[in-house]
Write a structure and sequence with these properties.
Elements: E1 8-19, E2 29-47, E3 51-52, H1 66-76, H2 82-98, E4 107-114, H3 124-139, H4 151-160, H5 169-176, E5 179-183, H6 186-192, E6 196-200, E7 209-212, H7 214-220, H8 222-225, H9 227-243, E8 247-250, E9 256-260, H10 265-278, E10 281-284, H11 294-298
Parallel strand pairs: 3-4
Antiparallel strand pairs: 1-2, 2-4, 2-5, 5-6, 7-9, 7-10, 8-9
Helix pairs in contact: 2-3, 2-4, 3-4, 4-5, 9-10
Amino acid sequence: MDPSTTAIEHKVHARVGLLGNPSDVYYGRTISFSLGNFWASVRLQPSDHLVISPHPTHDLVQFDSLSHLVNRLNNEGYYGGVRLLMALCKIFYNYCRDNKIDLQGGNFTISYDTNIPRQTGLSGSSAIVCAALNCLLDFYNVRHLIKVEVRPNLVLNAEKELGIVAGLQDRVAQVYGGLVYMDFSKNYMDDLGHGIYMPMEINLLPPLIILSTLRIRVILGRAMFGDDVLGALNLKMVEVARSVGAAAKFTGSGGAVVAFCPDGASQAKLLEDACNEAGFVIQPVKFVPSCLNELDLKTLPPQ
């Protein structure tokens, strides 16, 4: 396949911070995994001009009325994915220039789509950036020149370019895919500029369940709730899970919870009933394996 003439598309899944979150910003250790239920995809097509295509829903610029515009901003904010793609292009270009990686290729049109719910702590923004990075790596044929372990830094730097406050954990999980152990000890971060990352077998995980406030958010919207009430809803999800004896924790910064039912299917049914009564969305976790290919694996250090 000639990347200079063929469309390239990559999908990156949401992630769950299973253990240690958010110690990635405090020189700690974490374990995260890819959540196959949700993903972002990016498509890159060679073109005469470099075009960043706005998403018809997430980058809406046409409205039915002024009140429609205001309601949209109140519920969704000002930000879509175009700014993420632009920031990633800048970070990618600068990294290649600084590391004397020659970018041979023409222009392209890049677009994205996503079904990762907003404000649920499932790393929707970084999924878009990571998928776009994969497209650029293939379009310019430099996947073998940019090591897997430094790619999360590129994703994070693109988000930092936009003032997004975050750590490396989510980006590592989405660059590697599957189940990943990460050690962000200070000596590694100081000496290497990144942590030590170890892919693990995804089948080590037990059956898990995702709870989210998505249904309530859709019905009422953030503007009507306010951040204080949304915080209370986060705690309520954990309480609902624990009320039936399930273990539960946030997937990330809030908005979704991952739960484990040690007593099996009967307990999971109790949890489903409790969530339906409370108005929370519930679904079994879909696990996905690592997304690294042979070229990626060759850039990894020996284990």
